[in-house]
From TrEMBL, chain A:
It comes from Pseudogemmobacter lacusdianii. It comes from the Bacteria. Residues 187-393 form the ABC transmembrane type-1 domain. InterPro entries: MetI-like, MetI-like_sf. It is found in: Cell membrane. This is ABC transporter permease. Its main location: membrane. It is a multi-pass membrane protein. Belongs to the binding-protein-dependent transport system permease family. CysTW subfamily. Pfam families: BPD_transp_1. The chain crosses the membrane at residues 20-42, 182-209, 221-245, 275-295, 324-345, 372-396. SUPFAM superfamilies: MetI-like. Keywords: Cell membrane, Membrane, Transmembrane, Transmembrane helix, Transport.
TrEMBL record, chain B:
This is ABC transporter permease. Residues 65-253 form the ABC transmembrane type-1 domain. Belongs to the binding-protein-dependent transport system permease family. PROSITE patterns: ABC_TM1. CDD domains: TM_PBP2 (cd06261). The chain crosses the membrane at residues 12-34, 69-93, 100-125, 137-160, 181-202, 234-256.
Amino acid sequence: MRPPQPLRPSALRGQVPYLLMLAPLVMFVLVTVVVPVALFLFRAIDNRELQAGFPQTAAALSGWSQAQGLPPEPAFAALIFDLAKAQEEGRAAALAARLNQAVPGSRSTVIKTAKWAATADLQGASLREDVLDQGKAWHNPALWSVIAHETGRFTSYYILTTLDLKRGPEGQLQRLPAEEALFLTILARTLAISLSVTAICALLALPVAHVITAARPRMATLLLAMVLLPLWTSLLVRTVAWIILLQGEGPVNATLQWLGAVTEPLRLVYTRGSLIVTMVQVLLPLMILPVLAVLKRIPPEQMRAARSLGAPWWMAWRRVQLPLLWPGLMTGAGLTFTFALGYYITPRLIGGEKDQMLSSFIVFYTDKTLNWGLAAALSLQLLVILALVAGLLAGLHRLTTGRVR
Amino acid sequence: MRAEFWRIRIARILTGLVLAYLLAPLLVILPMSLTSGSNLTLPGPGWSWRWYELVLSDPRWLDALGNSLIVGLGSTLLAVLLATPAAVALAWGKFPGRQFALALIATPLVLPIVILAVASFSFYASAGLLGSRLGLILAHAGLSAPVVLITILASLRGFDLGLMRAAASLGAPPLTAFRRVLLPLVAPGVLAGAIIAFVISFDEVVIASYLTTAEQRTLPRVIFSGLRESISPAIAAAAVLLILASTLLLCLAAALQRPKDR
């Protein structure tokens, strides 16, 4: 690290042309990538809709708690007022969608009530009974509780949901009941698939890297080209190739049947096995290359010296070569693991329903149910894990390289 | 030494198996795409080019190929135009915050593709560019510009700014120095970056499926949606064409990037 140099205005003036050359790309990335990603992630805590939606109702509900059952009369009047306003301003559908996320099944009731509230003649009627007549959802204290508690600019609802948690009637944290819990399972599955793919890649990369390093130059170039070739073909195409290979009448099944190993075609596609086989094939070059780069720089004399001093091969490899290989393995593992964590196309195409990873659910919530808050919270979760892994690897890297020197 | 012999033997066999595993899927779909039947079975009933003819004559595939080429070339041009000056600035500039600028530009590379696609979707939707080729060109340029930048930075690293000064001191006007000294040295890096940018766009499917409608479908997008319906040999043929295109282009890029003996 160079010491920071004091900035003299004259020195900076000479840099203006460079800054002008850099500016277009920086602006482009900022405007089309960084800001949109930040705005999208912000949706994970954004609560503007509910905050603006029920100001009167929330005020009328202060002091009420879910344990008391349905709220008192003034809350119903306030609800009619708020919903009528939302209906006039065209926000009712969005509000209904937002409430539906918190209390599934409430959407149609909220929309219906808002329409009714905007037009109803409310002179002298029992507001409470009228609202309750609009639909079952208003009989559920949980819905009122959402309106009572989600009054701030920000909400922890989406992030808690991605951790299978929710706020109880008194605002305390609760685990979601087992039949609603979903996201911790997905998180564990994503981590498990990525970890096993990384471990298998590391095991397979070691012999390949050793053989390539020991080979004669021409042979080494050829072998390296064979590693690079799959890296250069698209992820989609490689996944397609595996589907074709593993399908019911595909070559793998045909060979197994021809060998007499099976009598009926095995179901090989859309399983955890096919997903891992494909992901390892796709990611393996990313593990081989860094290991190879490190291995090339280790003088072969070191192993020979250890062997000539009487160390058995395994001990020599483990005590002499492996510590030197760590940085390469760490880089490779970091690349493989972080790529694997964000995988979407491969699990989507070749995995079964129970093999879908975090990314698939981000797509699901933006594409199918339009629950952007939840999609953003899941994205945030994925990014936090990626950052943790990167930090952990950087720390480990410093430790291992420090020890070797 | 017997043990040593076997150890090397085993390592070689393992390497052979691993390399076969890496290459097999690419090699197996080649004969499968040449089948004359309409199922993807091996061995097929006979050989024919019919699936390649279909892919190269069916308007659905041809339109997709056209879209892919337009988007690929457009985004490559934009990425190169944005990244080349930025690379020169980062390589030669002495202003503070260069590391930060590089990290910022590299954001699209570290983000999981799905997050990038969703964010692009909301941005291009608000810009009114959803379902247009222009939107996809811009999005792909954002994805490939950092790669082009890094490629050009690598080729500039070996370039001595003193060469420009030497040219100037020998009386060359700045433009001549740029044309005769800088350009020949940087051009291979720029070209390699451009090729990689094109391949990135040509292969990209997730952003494409968020930003395009049926009209602007690219080749990978058609493969992706075709897979959900049924796997026909046409998909294998299209996949082989994609493999050939990206392999040839990337070999070219690698050759351009190889350090020359001077």
